[in-house]
Amino acid sequence: MRRSTLTYLHDARLDVTLKEALGVITRSPFSDLGLAKCGLSWSRLSANLGLWPAKDILADAFEAELPTEVTRRRGKVSWDGVCARAYAAHGDSIVTEIERVRGPLEQIGIDVRWVTERVGQLARWEKTSFGKDDKEVFAVCAVATWLRSWGVEQVSDCSWS
Hints:
The protein is mainly alpha-helical. The protein has a domain at 78-157. The protein is 57% helix and 0% strand. The chain has eight helices and no strands.
């Protein structure tokens, strides 16, 4: 999370999780040293000129092509801008996907009732005060989709039943 190492990401949850779990060393997306030096030089020049350009550069360039909700919002807020709106719009579909494989999910120890209630909370923009708010939902939805991709929708479809 240190900007000076060129590995700072606004949303580094995945990187942190992988590093903690697997010992992965985070590498900069700037693998070209010349590109990294250019970025640092641009930052120094901007600071010396008293400028703090951010997304304004792209917003100005695309002003006519992007809605003002994108170009003039005050900041990037992944929760309000993407996650919560997605859950509000697609929460029912997520619950349906999970419910379709309720039996197998419960067979492997997942509390489907809790997960579907959590989807409802997320759809209502209710957040927790810790870490990633939807990690369990994300994981269960992935498992549910994977099970269905293999034709497993009921416990009797499982080889362990």
